[in-house]
Amino acid sequence: MEKELKIPDATIERVALYLRPLENLLKEGAQVVSSEQLADLCNVNPAQVRKDLSFFGEFGVRGVGYEVSDLLREIKKILASDRVWRLGIFGLDDMGMALVQHKDFLKRGYRFVAAFDYDPEKIGKCLPTGLVIQPVSMIRELTRELRIEIGVITTSPSEAQKTADLIFQAGIMAVLNFSPIHLRKPECCLVQNVDFTLNLDHMAYQLKKHGQ
Amino acid sequence: MEKELKIPDATIERVALYLRPLENLLKEGAQVVSSEQLADLCNVNPAQVRKDLSFFGEFGVRGVGYEVSDLLREIKKILASDRVWRLGIFGLDDMGMALVQHKDFLKRGYRFVAAFDYDPEKIGKCLPTGLVIQPVSMIRELTRELRIEIGVITTSPSEAQKTADLIFQAGIMAVLNFSPIHLRKPECCLVQNVDFTLNLDHMAYQLKKHGQ
């Protein structure tokens, strides 16, 4: 444990980024990957890859590369993505529906075990995944019963803070927030914001810089 | 122009992050914001905010803060988000439908001007926004006619690379990619990948570290 705590956050973020290309390489039958190859797949530089991976033990063989399956297993263990995390989704409009059915979540170890909405018209409906939409008022009981660990907020912006408060009160410590709202949270809890328009802002800047 | 080119990419990414809280502050009637306040809203440290904003001219008044509306206008100008960018979306499954109707895009200056799909059952259908779904084979004509500047890929993974190739061939220089595929691209073109599971990986690591 002592060792893990010293890994910088930025390294963790980049290492998570290495997972997907590594999984693809394994699927394609590759046994070894070089830092140059991995760097190219992830748009970072090879020295950065080598430095990041040095936190995870001695996988590299100088002049050869890394054993793909060993590296993948170790990264997953450290990132805690070698187990299934249990998610509850809040708000079943288009975005919520798209997320709940998105195959990537389960493939990466994130399983939606509950779906909540405020709209009486939606409550009781069965999703294609088999989940039945529950009223948000059931959050405490269902969090305990289904052991929900992470809440995903896809409600309207006006309902986002109220929903976050209920999530934290129910004992869920982490929220993935798709609403364009800065959520207030207890010190001990975690919030990650997803904002696609930030990616677009970054591209727009690059396009403008290159004279589009 | 000379000056803009020197701004580091990491600064641009953080500055884009400052936009949304600044817009909220303006809406709430705030005239001045301190670096501490802005830092707190964006989860960065105040010294970082001051350093980032120093690239954008002399907005700060020592001991007081920044003029919200001046700062917002200047950031938007530099990020090129003071104008409307024209988007085409490729793949109208749940995720595509959710994005095309997402109010945030237009609010931040990104307008979907075209929607494409491969599925003959979908082609010709009218979206709630008024757009009619077009066959991907129409990409060249429509890119020219509608001046599409950025392509958004929400196709199935197996169609993502083919779609990206068509987008770049049609003269669109930038792609926002929602598929879990590493896209090959010409040197001159831009790709930004959106991957929600990376945010979850980061939270899972933090939860594990704190003993969940």
Q: What is shown here, in short?
A:
With 212 residues, chain A is an alpha/beta fold.
How would the blueprint of this fold be written?
2 copies of one chain form a homodimer.
Chain A: H1 2-5, H2 9-27, E1 32-33, H3 35-42, H4 46-54, E2 60-61, E3 65-67, H5 68-79, E4 85-90, H6 94-100, H7 103-107, E5 110-117, E6 133-135, H8 139-146, E7 150-153, H9 157-169, E8 174-177, E9 190-193, H10 196-209
Parallel strand pairs in A: 4-5, 4-7, 5-6, 7-8, 8-9
Antiparallel strand pairs in A: 1-3, 2-3
Helix pairs in contact in A: 2-5, 3-4
Structural write-up:
2 copies of one chain form a homodimer. The first copy, chain A, is 47% helix and 17% strand. With 212 residues, chain A is of the alpha/beta class. Chain A folds into 2 domains: 2-78, Winged helix-like DNA-binding domain superfamily/Winged helix DNA-binding domain (Arc Repressor Mutant, subunit A, Orthogonal Bundle), CATH 1.10.10; 85-197, NAD(P)-binding Rossmann-like Domain (Rossmann fold, 3-Layer(aba) Sandwich), CATH 3.40.50. In chain A, α9 links the parallel β7 (150-153) and β8. In chain A, α2 crosses α5 and α3 crosses α4 (46-54). The longest helix of chain A is centred in the first third of the chain and has 19 residues, at 9-27. The N and C termini of chain A lie far apart (49 Å). Chains A and B meet through α2, α6 and α10 of A and α2, α6 and α10 of B.
